[in-house]
């Protein structure tokens, strides 16, 4: 049995948390994040890789926009990983990933990531268990390489949305003209594979846990953004960084 069971984790904020107060705290943290990201960029001692995973309509795009959108674009980049291109399929599965990892001083956000190659590929039986185990080993070694050889801080977030909330958001994509561009006819079919995706994610959490995943309750955007901002800020504040002195 997986050590993390999503069915036992709430997709909502604690009941005693006040929305408006929490949003104010998040806003204050975003100001601090801007300062810490500037220090990260100036010191160029560490790299930061933020991996954001989640089922369709879990709020990945919104999290990226609202948490990272106010940071200096000179030091923050976003890479969205969609289905591999023909060229990418002629290489190993990490080829397209490695070219996108952050340099020292930079913060890189992955909207989906290398984990798709042990998630959607297994759900749809494009990848057998033996191949998946080899990929899991490669992912762990890859992340270890980034951490040990390039001072890369890796933060991995799973946006934990309920089935009911997902259905409501997918319906909004059909009903709201401003969200029509997000609509994909295949989303409804993917949603039917809910249990299989959850199973594969739980195995992923267990076998790729260095660093461990942060399970983010994602039914309420304000709480999702609070958790991501706090985790990122805590990580940056824990680094030994200082502004460089004058060059002689």
Protein model, in words:
The chain is of the alpha/beta class and 248 residues long. Helices cover 47% and strands 13% of the residues. It has helices at residues 19-43, 60-68, 86-89, 95-98, 120-123, 129-149, 163-175, 187-191, 194-207, 221-237; strands at 47-54, 76-80, 107-111, 152-160, 213-217. Strands 2-3-1-4-5 form a five-stranded parallel β-sheet, sandwiched between helices. It is globular, with a radius of gyration of 18 Å. The termini are far apart.
CATH class category label: Alpha Beta
Secondary structure class reads alpha/beta
Instruction: Summarize the main sheet.
Output: 5 strands, parallel
Taking all Cα atoms into account, the compactness measure Rg is: 18 Å
SSE topology string:
HEHEHHEHHEHHHEH
Tell me the strand percentage band: 5-15%
Oligomer: single chain
Record the strand order, biggest sheet. 2-3-1-4-5
Mean pLDDT: 96
CATH architecture: 3-Layer(aba) Sandwich
| Overall 3D shape | globular
Instruction: Please indicate the count of domains.
Output: 1
Report the strand count: 5
Terminal CA distance = 59 Å
- In DSSP terms (H or I, runs of 4 or more residues), the helix count works out at 10
Low-confidence stretches: none
Kindly report the CATH topology. Answer: Rossmann fold
Q: Work out the helicity level.
A: 40-55%
CATH superfamily, by name, is P-loop containing nucleotide triphosphate hydrolases
């Amino acid at each position: 049995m997986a050590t993390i069971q999503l069915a036992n984790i709430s997709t909502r904020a604690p009941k005693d948390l006040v929305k408006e107060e929490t949003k104010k705290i998040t806003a204050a943290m975003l100001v601090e994040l801007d300062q810490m990201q500037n220090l990260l960029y100036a010191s160029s001692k560490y790299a930061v890789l933020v991996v954001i995973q989640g089922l369709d309509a879990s709020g990945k795009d919104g999290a990226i926009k609202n948490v990272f959108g106010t940071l200096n674009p000179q030091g923050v980049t976003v890479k969205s990983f969609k289905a591999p291109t023909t060229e990418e399929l002629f290489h190993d599965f990490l080829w397209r990933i490695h070219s996108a990892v952050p340099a020292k001083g930079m913060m890189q956000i992955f909207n989906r990531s290398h984990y798709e190659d042990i998630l959607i590929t297994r759900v749809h039986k494009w990848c057998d268990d033996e191949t998946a185990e080899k990929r899991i080993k490669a992912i762990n070694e890859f992340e270890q390489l980034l951490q040990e050889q390039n001072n890369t801080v890796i933060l991995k977030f799973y946006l934990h949305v309920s089935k009911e909330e997902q259905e409501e958001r997918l319906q909004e994509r059909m009903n709201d003209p401003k969200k029509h561009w997000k609509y994909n006819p295949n989303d409804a079919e993917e949603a039917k594979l809910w249990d299989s995706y959850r199973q594969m994610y739980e195995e992923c959490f267990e076998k790729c846990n260095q660093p461990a995943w942060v399970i983010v309750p994602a039914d309420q955007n304000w709480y999702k953004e609070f958790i991501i901002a706090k985790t990122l800020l805590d990580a940056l504040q824990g680094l030994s960084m200082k502004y460089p002195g004058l060059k002689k």
